[in-house]
Amino acid sequence: MTTSLIDQQAKIKELIEDIRINTFITKEAGGKLQGRPMSTVEVDHEGCLWFFTNEYTGKTKDISHNKEVYLTYASPSTNSYVVIDGTAALNDDAEKIKELWNPSLKAWFPEGLDDPKIQLIKVIPIHAEYWDGTSSKVVLAYQKLKAVITGKEFNDGEHSEVNLK
């Protein structure tokens, strides 16, 4: 069965929204990869991912030198994983910041929406790969045992690669 690009994009969005936290990987000016945990604020209708950041962080400096980023999402409890490579853009649009604002962000931006350090990162995905074995751990254990007993290969769920641009 062939899955359409729109269906695959919807699947990726669903998995990301369920996982939320990712490792956001940038490349420093010297070439070293740098990862840090980030929370996805939104996956918009075009499939772009949005993040809040402090304008004066290493990741914003990295993005100003190299716009290529890599995001990894992992939920071992649901056996779901997503990796995305894309292009990042720094954005300080006050209306978009207001649209995406959540009061819990005051932990990082004590001045709220008036905090001068607030900046957004927009990631335009180019390629994604996902694995989704949303069965419970008990079901997965049973399926593994069944594969061992029957000698048939274990199928741990849905897997797909998607070129997005």
Textual characterization of the structure:
The radius of gyration is 18 Å and the shape is globular. The protein is built from four helices and eight strands. The protein has one domain (5-163): Electron Transport, Fmn-binding Protein, Chain A (Pnp Oxidase, Chain A, Roll). The model has no long low-confidence stretch (mean pLDDT 86). Strands 1, 2, 3, 4, 5, 6, 7 and 8 form an eight-stranded antiparallel beta sheet that branches. The chain is an alpha+beta fold and 165 residues long.
Quick description:
By secondary structure, the chain is of the alpha+beta class. The chain has helices spanning 5-19, 58-65, 94-100, 137-150, and strands spanning 21-27, 33-39, 42-43, 49-54, 68-75, 80-91, 118-132, 158-163. The protein has a single domain (5-163), classed as Pnp Oxidase, Chain A (Roll), CATH 2.30.110.
